[in-house]
Amino acid sequence: MREVAIVGAGMTRFGEIWQSSLRDLFVEAATEAMRNASADHLDAMYVGNMSGGQFVGQEHLGPLMADHLGMAGIPAARVESACASGGVALRLAFMEVASGMSDLVLAAGVEKMNDGADVTAVLASAADQEAEAYHGITFPGLYAMIARAHMEAYGTTEEDMAAVSVKNHRHGALNPKAQFRREVTLEEVMNSSLVAAPLRLLHCSPVSDGAAAVLLCPLERAKEFTDRPVKIIGSGLATGSMALADRNEPAFLDSVSLSAGRAYKMAGIKPSDIDVVEVHDCFSIAEICCLEALCLVERGKGGEAARSGLTALGGKVPVNTSGGLKSKGHPVGATGVAQAIEIFEQLRGESGDRQVADASIGLAQNMGGSGASSAVHIFQRV
Amino acid sequence: MPSPRYWREIPSRYRLEASRCCGCGKVAYPARKVCPACGADDWKQIQLSRHGRVVTSTVIHVPPDDFLMEAPYAVAVVETSEGARLMVQVVDCEPAEVVPGTEVNLEFRLIRREGHGGILCYGYKGVPAG
Lengths: 382, 130
Fold this sequence. Notes:
The structure holds two protein chains of two kinds. By secondary structure, chain A is of the alpha/beta class. Chain A has helices at residues 22-36, 52-55, 61-68, 85-98, 119-124, 139-154, 158-172, 186-191, 254-267, 284-293, 302-308, 324-328, 335-348, and strands spanning 4-11, 44-48, 76-79, 105-112, 194-197, 199-200, 209-218, 230-239, 276-278, 361-368, 373-381. Chain A folds into two domains: 4-118 and 207-230, Thiolase/Chalcone synthase (Peroxisomal Thiolase, Chain A, domain 1, 3-Layer(aba) Sandwich), CATH 3.40.47; 127-205 and 232-381, Thiolase/Chalcone synthase (Peroxisomal Thiolase, Chain A, domain 1). In chain A, the strands form two sheets. Chain A has a nine-stranded mixed sheet, with helices on both faces. A two-stranded antiparallel ribbon of chain A has the order 5-6. Chain B has one domain: CATH 2.40.50.840. The radius of gyration of chain B is 16 Å and the shape is globular. The A-B interface holds A 118, 120-121, 124, 130-138, 140-141, 144-146, 148-149, 152, 193-199, 241, 243-246, 250 and B 9, 12, 30, 36, 55-67, 70, 72-73, 75-77, 85-89, 95-96, 99-100, 111-112, 121, 123. Strand 5 (194-197) of chain A pairs antiparallel with strand 4 (51-60) of chain B.
């Protein structure tokens, strides 16, 4: 396998972007990534997207996006793994470059959620249709059941979960691309309306439009495109039980643990080597569970992490410096790639007020569904 | 939901049919072709008892459009004495009172009306055991 680097990145701001279509969002992010690396062509492209078909009635995104990027003719395909679609697109691009098959590959993600669809129902199609969605469960509902199981097993509290939202909003307030560039207080989170008990509105990531793209090439060619490439040193993908009812321990995310183990092994590093982390906080409880599955904290100790300051900017392991899905926004197909961009910029020292001092190794974890799939990537400054 | 699919799912939906793996004894609900625990493909059909205990739960306040009229409603993962776990709504009670450990009976109920035709879809819901 060849060593692979990210040499360029581009993303739209995340939010309710009424004036831009699915293709507009994609083209904005993709052209920025290519311009960022002064690249004038692509050898291949992967487009992470959860549900263009249900959100805006558009499938077949590989050729559509290649065409609108002015690249009709290149190999391009849409990749789907629910909310982990972006992370899986990144993995496929990484594999294509590592294998020697292609040199310049774009990994992108895009989602247009604010165009009138029944978003709650579309997202629920990432759950088990026959065993779960049929009975009226929603995604906040699935994570609420994970939260309740975590509270039962480890004594995690609503305050613990609220502290995750407070921290991520504090980070997101510093991110010009974030959907919610404002802080929230613990009281505001605790008093926000119930979505699926015990989860409240401010425990939940928002409904967002947005796109993100990164350009990959072999490390040996990286200097043609940038003087600050970032290496991808580990990639892990894993699946777990689709239905929450089929998991022995609903509060533990097996797929996250498996994907992390694979990525750590490939990278040859330990969890304690990591300087900056992006995890899939689609709901506050998800960040708590992911920290445990990534072995960044002991099992059952995730609840304390945000409250104690461990995971805040300036803490020992800063988590979701971008604001996370909670504050930055969560256009589901784009999220995995946007997480990689936050780590890319952190390792290049480009994160401004959110910069983690001297960060050299970073990790991004992107989850699909209620944890049925997870993609983990580990990055290193060159 | 197209009617062939609804018809196909009747055994698990209407009769709570599950299957027990002849290799390792794992109970799968709904029935499966391959055992997720041991990989065997030899199964014995069983019927779940109409009683279980809540493993974890939530109360849905923001539902999908099809369930708008019902919110807030409780949904729980319920484990039966056979060791099968299923996701069901828990009704005829204060939703907030459905918590881990709550004992429920499983009763045949209307689950939803689907599509423009308003097809009635049935299945089981939990009701706290007296």
